[in-house]
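note to self: dont lose this again. the chain is below, predicted strucutre after it. 385 aa total, dont forget to put it in the shared folder this time
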Amino acid sequence: MKTVAVIFGGKSAEHDVSIVTALGGIIKPLEASGNYVVEVIYIAKDGSWHWDDKLKDINLYSKGGIADFLQNDPAVSVTFDGGLSLSKSIKLGRKKTATIDVAFPATHGTYGEDGSLMGLLRMAGIPFVGCDMEASVIAMNKLLSHQVISALGIEQYEYRGVQKTGFENNRAACIARLEGMNYPVFVKPVHLGSSIAITRVASHEEIANALEVAFHYDNLAIVEEAVQNLIEVTVPIMGNTDDLQVAYVEKPLIAEGSTFDFETKYLKQGGGKKSAKSGAQGYSELPAKLPDGLYEKCELLAKDVYTAFGCEGTARIDLLIDSVAGKVYFNEINPLPGDLYSHNWRAKGVSSVQLVTELIQLAERRHEETKNRTTSFSTNYLKQF
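---
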């Protein structure tokens, strides 16, 4: 059997969400398939790497035992040299080793989902699940994502970027550049997901405080005008450059007047009425019931974005709809959907075991294609020195 390493945790504000994705959405179905040896690599909040089967137990994290465990856990040696191998000391001076065939990243946010880990795995030369480095970098940068969409000529709502250094050096001038935007607006850290540190701003006087919140997590913020007559939807997609599978267009159900922030998404189960086909946090209408023609528009735009960004494996495209104007806008793209959005795929007829299996197959297929590329070029350049 092939050995799959599920990598999760990380130095990210989305650390805890990553744990749930790895343990529930990836490790359990991989083991249930009976086709893989599953090794778990947990990256602690301080950046240290740990490898132990005990890290598969959610109680270790939820009951507060993780700090003591890490303190007594021997360091793991990770070798990236023509592959990925693990080694750690165990009892009586013996060593435990493993060679990894496929990596399955579950690291949400910075130093993982943002392309950092993907670049490392690509240099190691092993297959890894999900978007490659370039697509991950673009997807996890909300400002860059919107600039790409603008370059494609796709209509968007008004947005502007704000740098932390500019804000700190001349706050008044920085805020003045946001004049002319229609309120309410949303202020977001550019590189974070899971709706962390998003602030809804009702007036120009509140913008400075919202930027301070964003800059606590990032050096770049994006300010976006709110879409009127709003319907939010999300579209999970699976596939490489061709033969894409589109899951259901899904509509979050949140209480009227609420913002779909971290607390609403993960701690309040959406704040809306729980449906029979509820999502990972119990808040979704699946499939979304939309005005005539808008469901198809969402599917088409999501596929166009996925292809344009060069996404592979899987990603989730978030869209905003003006239900009166009948317009669909790109909001953002998530290259590592929480829990892989397995609830949506199940409703579409793809089991959790099928989902992780297909994602591994897509990773291996991309890896084989990559191996056939020429990466060297013979020249006489050095002979002149």
